[in-house]
Amino acid sequence: MNYCISFVLLLSVVTACTKDLGRDLPFNGPDLVLYGVLSPDSVVTLQVRQTYPPTGRYVYEKGVQTALVYLYEDSVRIEQLRHQQEGQYGSARNTKPQVGKSYYYVVSSPGYPDAYSLPERIPGPVKISDVVFDEAISAPLNSGVPARKLVCTFTDPATPNDYYSIDIAGYSDEKEVAVNSVGLDRPDEFEDGCGFRSNGQSNGYNLSDICFNGQTTTVRVGVELEGPTRPTGIRGKVTKILLRLHRTNRGYFEYNRTFNIGEGLLQAFQAPQVRYSNVRGGYGIILAYNSDTVTIIP
Amino acid sequence: MEWHPLPRHTIQAGTEVIRHRFRPTGVSTTYGINPDTLARVNAAIPATEAAVYAEDEFTVSTWLRTNVGLRAVAYQVAGKTYSYTEPRFSLSVSPNSRLSLKFAYSRMHQFVHLLSSNSVGLPNDIWVPATQRVPPQRSDQITVGLTYSLPNQLLSVTLEAYHKTLSGLIDYQTGTNFLTNFSRQWENTVERNGIGDSKGVELLVLKTQGRVTGWMAYTLARHRRRFPTIDQNRWYAPNYDRRHVFSLTGQYAISEQVSLAATWIYQSGQPTTVPIAIQENIAGEATAYPPLIYGDRSNFRMPAYHRLDLSLTIRHVTRRIRQAQWSFGVYNAYNQANPFYLDFDRRLVYAAPRQPVGFDYKVVRRAVFPVLPYVTYSLSFPR
Question: A62-76, B240-254, B284-298 — which is least confidently predicted?
Answer without folding.
Answer: B284-298
